[in-house]
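Box 3.1 — From sequence to structure: Bifunctional folate synthesis protein
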Amino acid sequence: MSSGMGFGPITSPSGRLLDQIRLSGVTARGTHGVFDFERREGQDFVIDVVLHTDIAPAAASDDLTKTTHYGELAGTVADIVRGEPVDLIETLAERIALACLQPPGVIAADVAVHKPQAPIEETFGDVVVAIRRERTVLLERAPAEPVPVVLALGTNMGDRLMILRGAVSDLRETEGLEVDVLSPVIQTDPVGGPEQPDYLNAVVLCTTTLSAYDLLAACNRIEAGFGRERTVRWGPRTLDIDVISYGDLRSYDEKLTLPHPRAHERAFVLAPWLAADPQASLLTERGTEKVTVLLDGAPDRISLRQRPELTLEHWA
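Predicted structure (token representation):
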């Protein structure tokens, strides 16, 4: 049976073709359909899945935890087919695709739902609904449970300490966002861009029920409230709030790449994060790595200057 999927490959932002994990012919009996006899008697559905991902970390480490367990995936797909009935196989395909996007590292999923016993009076070979869903779908959806997030704050204009404190206050007042841990404040040289003053940097550990996109929008609103303007790349700024990580979500979306694509090499992010959470780890192209190890290799670590006399709390 043909997969029925005519979608092409997917490339990463760097232009590299993503790898694929293919699972074909998962067959399970379900009671999906608009007719009473379909709900009563059921029929077999056949599912094909293509996951677009990066298998390099798993291949290098020979570690199953760094890739998708296709046995478990097959079970998940079959359980969805056997589960709550729906009228349309379009809806069934959507449910399966969203489940396929859950494993870390999966960037997109192609799903084909075959209904070879569809109630059609004419002679036919198969009925197939094929869809592609990218991880941006997960960026748009609010999580069912609070998700841990890491936010990096930086400023090198104006009253830097008061700006950082004001940003923390605004984060605390953001509905759907809970501020859990504040890092110490560190001072660093600017990285890239034109000549400019030193930065004060900090990291805030939070949990959120906001979608990733809504969290980004909230951070952008706070930045704008402090006069942030994006006129010069890596130029001076009143306030920068970067979403470093959002749970274990991985995204190559142009609007919000997760984890932050340069966090693994930026000491001004890694140092305060490590101070806030000594066990912190970050998903990189090489797999999950300890922040303490990443900090040791960060090229800008020599510019770090601790500022223990500064605190993000107004009342301290």
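Summary of the box: The radius of gyration is 24 Å.
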